[in-house]
Design brief:
It is built from 12 helices and 12 strands. With about 375 residues, the protein is an alpha/beta fold. It folds into 2 domains: about 140 residues, Response regulator (Rossmann fold, 3-Layer(aba) Sandwich), CATH 3.40.50.2300; about 180 residues, 2-Layer Sandwich (Alpha-Beta Plaits). The strands form 3 sheets. A 5-stranded parallel sheet has the order 2-1-3-4-5, sandwiched between helices. A 5-stranded mixed sheet has the order 7-8-6-11-12, sandwiched between helices. The protein binds 3'-deoxy-guanosine-5'-triphosphate and magnesium ion (MG) (2 copies).
Length: about 375
């Protein structure tokens, strides 16, 4: 029988009192192909059992030896093996003592008159059981390893998915939400606001004369301004608000649970923040302003869908541009003359929806 860990001959640790060595026993074990590690010292026995090199312990105990009762348990406590068979050869032990050895954890108790052949057969039987234990422990370990690997792969997958999710909802230049994400969140917030009867406001912000900034300082400098603007918006909003880049130099801010007066005040604060900010790109100082359109529901008109909120914020933004830029116009301040407003179901707003880049274009038709 070979050790299944490393396919070496099984190793038997034999404790024999110096006064009663048994050459015949060692020969029958080595003759069966096993390696015998012989000792007469208890300390050596325990040290050897601590290493993983032992497959079976054979204890030749004098009749008077009472320590033998605890020895199997002690050996099992120190061995790193999943199972260590312990066999006791007890000369002249009566039935009561043999039972005590077995109850104390010995796997086998033999008389010292046992023949070499029977000893080998009984050792072989215990080694077979040990082999089964070892195989079981090995497959349990490999199961635990593959579970651990799968757990790590799952965690990796989750991280990748979260990263992909972030990529698919984030504008690569400014790192705020992209148009697609804006649409989803606005729809969601609109449904929530309607369900719970909360107000909801939307700001649309467009950089004034941004083309001139690009022309004057270069496109990369324009990019820096856009990034800084997104930073200003992110710093100014509440946790529950959402900033999105919804066009080239156009941003939108969703303000849940915010009515028109509060939204207007907030828009004004943001406009002022931008106006007061010193944008610096490639060593050059740049001045930028934004125009802001604000729309709120349920305060403003009968807004029945998120696309109407976008439409009105867009109209208010156009008004702010027309009125001279660097200003806020709220939907209720719109001069209704000369501007087409949607009919009740927002049918006319579709014309504006076709305008390239309009966030309205991206919203689902109702
Ligand atoms: P207005 O005050 O009417 O909004 O004028 P404007 O110049 O800001 O508007 P216009 O639509 O004429 O020009 C917008 C410019 O924004 C043109 C376009 O090249 C630029 N732009 C769009 N996307 C980006 C971008 O990602 N980076 C940079 N640097 N420029 C961009
Ligand atoms: Mg602009
Ligand atoms: Mg624009």
């Amino acid at each position: 029988m070979r050790n299944q860990k490393d396919d070496k001959p099984a190793r038997i640790l034999l404790l024999e009192p110096e006064t009663q060595p048994s050459a015949g026993r060692v020969e029958s074990l080595t003759g069966a192909g096993w390696q015998v590690l012989q000792t007469a010292q208890m300390a050596e026995l325990l040290a050897a059992a601590k290493s993983s090199d032992v497959d079976l312990v054979l204890l030749h105990l004098p009749v008077s030896e009472t320590i033998g009762l605890d020895l199997p348990a002690v050996l099992r406590a120190v061995t790193p093996a999943a199972y260590l068979p312990v066999m006791i050869v007890a000369p002249g032990a009566g039935e009561r003592q043999r039972c005590e050895y077995l109850n104390g954890g010995a796997d086998e108790v033999l008389s010292d008159t046992v023949s070499g052949g029977e000893l080998a057969a009984r050792v072989r039987a215990l080694l077979r059981i040990k082999d089964l234990h070892d195989r079981l422990a090995a497959s349990r370990q490999s199961l635990a390893d593959s579970l651990e690997r799968e757990r790590a792969m799952l965690a990796d997958l989750r991280r990748h998915n979260a990263h992909l999710q972030t990529l698919s909802t984030t504008d690569p230049l400014t790192k705020v939400r992209n148009l697609r994400s804006f649409r989803d969140i606005l729809n969601h917030e609109f449904q929530n606001a309607r369900r719970y009867g909360d107000p909801l406001s939307l700001l649309m912000l467009d950089v004034d004369h941004f083309k001139s900034i690009n022309d004057l300082h270069g496109h990369p400098a324009g990019d820096v301004v856009l990034r800084d603007l997104a930073g200003i918006f992110e710093r100014t909003i509440r946790k529950s608000d959402v900033v999105a880049r919804t066009g080239g130099e156009e941003f939108s801010i969703i303000l849940p649970k915010t009515g028109r007066a509060q939204a207007r005040r907030f828009a004004e604060r943001i406009r002022q923040e931008v106006r007061d900010h010193f944008f610096v790109a490639f060593g050059r100082q740049i001045q930028a302003t934004v125009s802001v359109g604000s729309a709120s529901c349920p305060d403003d008109a009968k807004i029945t869908g998120p696309e109407m909120l976008v439409y009105f914020a867009d109209q208010a933004l156009l008004e702010a541009k027309a009125a001279g830029r660097d200003r806020v116009v709220a939907m209720h301040e719109l001069r209704m003359t000369g501007r087409r407003l949607p009919d009740r179901e927002c049918g006319v707003a579709r014309a504006d929806a076709e305008r390239p880049g309009s966030p309205l274009a991206a919203l689902p038709a109702r």
